[in-house]
Amino acid sequence: MSSLSQSRTYLDHNATTFTWPEVIEAVTKAMAVDGNPTAQHVDGRAANGIVSKAREAVGLAMGVCAQDVMFTGSGTEADNTAIWSAIQAGCKHLLISSMDHPATILAAENYGVSFELIPADREGRTDINWLAKKLDSWDKSLGRPFVSIVAANSETGVIQDVETATELVRNASGLILVDAVQALGKISMTFMPDYLAVSAHKIGGPKGVGALYVAPDAPFTPLLSGGGQERRRRSGTHNVGGIAGFGAACSMGINLEHTRELRAILEAELKKMEPELVIFGEGADRLPNTSFFAIPDASSMTLMMALDLEGISVSTGTACSSGKVGESRSIKAMGRLDEAPKGAIRVSFGDNAILNEVEDFLLAWSKIRRKPLPFTPSPRGIADIEVEKSRPKTDATKIGAT
Predict the structure, then answer these.
(1) Distance, CA of 176 to CA of 192 (rounded, Å)
(2) Could you tell me where the beta strands, DSSP code E, fall in 144-250?
(3) How many whole angstroms from its chain centre is CA 34?
(4) 324 vs 128: CA distance, rounded Å
């Protein structure tokens, strides 16, 4: 499934995950179709059929009607389009979760609209009570309320109470955008917001393809002008290959439940080596594959680079837009920067994760931090470390039994 060397262990699936072979096949076949989807001849209709089939699969995965799904170039574009539409509809003051991806927060800044960040608690959960009070006392001169909330935070993996937020906004006659880029395929998509943003590459699809659901009664203004593709909602020639891959990825589905045990083992063993370990969102409901942690005296950037040299791919909690190395937007929103003065490390497992990946990480960590291993390493062989598409049951007796 991966093009990475078997000598490396990839643990950064929240950034992007491996592309399924079936997706690559779908993309390749679609790229062999020469027609433009908007053309009326046989070749154009063939390309349009590919787009339509993919739209059905994506809509099903999102839990919405396919005809209300428009394809974009990314989740970021989907977020920006929804926010632009709300502003054009007269929303003068936006409420954006402080746990949101920068795509929504920076979009509000760049569009020059007034906005307010919804606070979060120390576990990284958006403060729904604060939102309820704000909506109850809403100043109607600000237009309809507009709320943006992420379904699952990309750093901590904390799952937000989107259902309650959606209900509150509906009752206030407002509009709500749910950024489900990190959540698609990982949690149940039972909520029905006005706008719903997703992306392909988080679930084994191609990079550079996203989608936006727009409810039939939600206001909409195109972000891009041109040829009027996507029912005049998103101009620009369709990325037929990428869209086909997105549909294939949605049809494949992902299963991360087995990673919950792998994460538990990883965090338990790290705590034995690092008594000062801080795990962000540990007390909240999290995506099963995600762990975001810090060692107060250790630089996350230095640790990430050292792990990279040892063949382990992870990410840091550094916020690129802040200009301050080591500062995470999420940790700041949680009011816990003092617990991660030098940043944090995010480990995120993939659909095909196996126990050996946990052991690889812990072995590298022990070497870098010069900490004794709290377990005996297992015998290794090519067959043991080969990444398989199947999802083998975790054998917790190998690690963490002491």
Answers:
(1) 9
(2) 146-150, 175-179, 195-199, 210-214
(3) 32
(4) 29
Question: Which position among 65, 91, 250, 320 bears the catalytic label?
Answer: 320
> What's the pLDDT tens digit per position in 219-270?
999 988 899 888 888 889 899 999 999 999 999 988 899 999 999 999 999 9
Amino acid letter, 176: I
Give the model's pLDDT for residue 6: 58
Q: Contact 303/276 with Cβ under 8 angstroms?
A: no
Length of the chain counted residue by residue: 402
Q: What is the pLDDT of residue 379?
A: 66
What is d(CA 237, CA 239) in angstroms, rounded to the nearest whole number?
Answer: 6
- Single-letter residue type at 254: I
Residue 378 has a pLDDT of 73
Give the pair of three-digit tokens for residue 338: 């003092």
For residue 247, the tally of other CB atoms under 10 A from its CB is 29
pLDDT for the residue numbered 7:
79
Tokens of 372: 């004794």
| Residue 250 is among the residues annotated as catalytic for this protein | no
Go through 74-101 and write b for each residue having 16 or more CB atoms within 10 A of its CB, e for each that does not.
Answer: bbbbbbbbbbbbbbeeebebbbbbbbbb
The residues of the chain scoring below 70 in pLDDT are 1-6, 317-326, 379-402
Reading the block at residue 97, the tokens are: 């979760």
Helices (H), 101-239: 102-111, 128-136, 162-171, 229-232
How far CA 181 is from CA of 150, 177, 202, 223, 253, in Å, comes to 8, 12, 7, 19, 14
**pLDDT score of 376:** 80
Q: What would the two tokens of residue 351 be?
A: 């659909």
Give 112's DSSP letter.
Answer: T
- Phi and psi torsions of 98, nearest 5°: -65, -10
Question: What is the rounded CA–CA span in Å between residue 297 and residue 295?
Answer: 6
DSSP letter string over 333-382?
Answer: HTT-GGG-TT--EEEE--TT--HHHHHHHHHHHHHHHT---SSPPPP--H
C-beta atoms surrounding 27 within 10 Å:
23
Beta 175-179 vs 114-118: how paired, if at all? unpaired
Q: How far does Cα 32 stand from its chain's mean position? A: 30
